[in-house]
Write a structure and sequence with these properties.
single chain, 496 residues, mainly alpha, 2 strands
């Protein structure tokens, strides 16, 4: 029996050896993992599950131990690297605390948002996950009508679990995303429990009509014919074009918000809770813009296309938005839009068509909200594409030089030194970010300029697949090439 009451057999069921990715659009693994690194990874995940709370302080900052460990493993890191960072990261964690009472279906709603009941939700979801598939568990507790809106309950008593899923700088989505990508029910359980205890800052983000069963059957019938992400569908080896095909593109939404005088730039007046202040003021307007986004399931490949729009959007507002007159700024908050978008392919592959639409629309609203929250930084695409580099800024060729290397020889693969350096950066978010950019470059790096011609966003036609490498290199320069001898630098918390 473990320290939190979980048996060793149960821990083995929650944290088996990682499985292969669930979709061909999910991040693939780099070589390097072996039996030792698998065993070490499992040991870290199990020990963290038993010993630590999901929040490392009273401000609800998140425990990132599993994220770093899984990212290192995915990129072929050694057992020693996984073990070393666990020893460092565990020092700042809070111990797990017993739940005041067990969580049941009867009191599930009563304790939402209360971190004291985290272990109670972990136990509840552990039982649910042992009886259901990952897909069924997600469908019921995140996307169902029952766990979002209940007839007869007042507005302040609704569960709204889909809204909880996007709270906390999207960490519930990230946590669950890791669970789905690596086939780890323990991560799914922890992520669902995290969603349950996150503070819900704004209610009513999703109208009850979205969860109506009558809508479900129509959506399922249409989308299952047209999407390679339909549950049980064979994998796809090609990607549909995301360029303008009629309707409203995600870039159109951003362009309209940039021109909307409603979003005047101002600093929050409440230093204790600036997020809630800005969110309460602008949420209805953001929601109105987001609802204009077109998702037409009558078009083949629409789910894949809309997912790609969100990936580009997240990297755009972080990367192009981070280019200021004083240089590039790696924003801590917008960086999370990048790292969370990495899990869209894995999550979507596990969901019904109706839930795929819900997660896509909910994610767009979340990304737009954080962009506005951070000051709605300008998106000067022309300047970005003409001034940023696609070559590492530090020497990455070995000495002595081989016959194939000169002072001006480009790095044979610029992502290899980026990932190698990121793996040794003490800030866990650096590795998560660079893993994301590397995967996005794998998927979309061959998109040519002109791909986004026809959208309303100024100079969008200048964008090409090098966006992800350019932003990756800017991030490496900002957070420092630690392996190459530079001093690590954290992401920026200062608002634009």
């Amino acid at each position: 029996m473990s320290s939190n009451g979980t048996t060793h057999q149960k821990l083995d069921e929650l944290f088996p050896a990682p499985s292969l990715p669930p979709s061909q659009l999910s991040p693939q693994r780099l070589p390097g993992a072996n039996l030792d690194s698998v065993a070490t990874l499992q040991g870290v995940l199990k020990d963290n599950h038993q010993r630590h709370h999901i929040f490392c302080n009273d401000a609800k900052f998140h425990n990132h131990i599993p994220y770093r460990a899984l990212a290192i493993y995915a990129l072929g890191g050694t057992a020693a690297t996984i073990r070393e960072y666990y020893q460092r990261d565990r020092r700042r964690q809070r111990p797990a605390i017993p739940s005041p009472e067990p969580i049941t279906e009867e009191n599930f709603i009563s304790h939402l948002g209360d971190e004291k009941f985290y272990q109670g939700y972990v136990s509840f979801f552990s039982q649910q996950a042992s009886e259901k598939s990952v897909a069924s568990t997600l469908e019921e507790f995140i996307f169902s009508e029952k766990y979002n809106f209940r007839e007869g309950s007042d507005a302040d008593s609704q569960p709204e679990m889909l809204s909880h899923f996007f709270q906390g700088l999207v960490h519930p989505m990230i946590h669950i995303g890791y669970g789905v990508e690596f086939g780890l029910k323990g991560m799914l359980v922890e992520g669902l429990a995290l969603a349950a205890v996150e503070t819900l800052r704004v209610r009513g983000s999703f109208p009850a009509s979205l969860f109506a069963p009558s809508l479900t059957n129509v959506v399922e019938h249409t989308a299952n014919r047209l999407s390679s992400f339909a549950l049980g569908a064979p994998g796809t080896t090609s990607l549909p074009n995301v360029s303008k095909m009629g309707g409203v593109h995600a870039f159109d939404i951003v362009a309209r918000i940039l021109k909307d005088d409603t979003f005047e730039h101002r600093d929050p007046t409440d230093p204790l809770d600036p997020f809630s202040e800005i969110l309460a003021e602008y949420s209805p307007t953001i929601k109105g813009h987001a609802e204009q986004w077109s998702v037409d399931l009558n078009q083949t490949g629409e789910v894949e296309r809309k997912m790609e729009e969100l990936v580009w959007l997240s990297s755009l507002i972080y990367g192009v938005g981070g280019l200021t007159p004083n240089g590039f700024k790696s924003d801590f908050f917008l960086m999370h839009m990048v790292t969370s978008s990495l899990f869209l392919p894995s999550l979507i592959a596990s969901l019904s068509a109706r839930s795929q639409i819900l997660i896509l629309r909910g994610y767009l609203s979340t990304v737009l909200t954080w962009w506005v929250m951070r000051g709605r930084p300008a998106l000067n695409i022309k300047s970005f594409m003409t001034t940023t580099s696609v070559e590492p800024s530090v020497p990455t060729t070995p000495a002595p030089k081989t016959p194939l290397t000169t002072e001006t020889t480009p790095a044979p693969n610029p992502f290899l030194p980026i990932l190698r350096s990121a793996m040794l950066n003490p800030h866990a978010h650096v590795l998560k970010s660079q893993r994301s950019f590397a995967h996005f470059h794998t998927l979309y790096g061959r998109r040519a300029a002109g791909y986004f011609k026809g959208t309303e966003l100024e100079d969008a036609e200048l964008l090409d697949g090098s966006l992800f490498l350019r932003v990756s290199l800017l991030t490496a320069d900002y957070t420092a090439w630690v392996r190459e001898g530079k001093k690590a630098r954290p992401f920026s918390y200062h608002r634009f």
